[in-house]
Amino acid sequence: MTDENPKPKRRLNRDQRRALDTAEVASFVKQYGRRAQRGVEPNDRQIDEDVARRVKRADPTTLDRLLHDDED
Q1: Where are the domains of the chain?
Q2: Which of 2, 12, 43, 53 could pair covalently with 16 via S-S, beta carbons 3.0-4.6 A apart?
């Protein structure tokens, strides 16, 4: 049996993880804030519940930093 990917998986460094978190939160906010489409099911949004849970439990300063990260 041969392994196609013999290298072990790398963990993301702090900057990469922060960028990923920022992108996830930005995508969540965009989807969450979108208005319902006329004549379509009002709950048609596909929101990631894990991200929603993390946003609701996040420290306000951390959440603010993630939301305004691209303004730096």
Answers
A1: 15-30+48-72
A2: 12
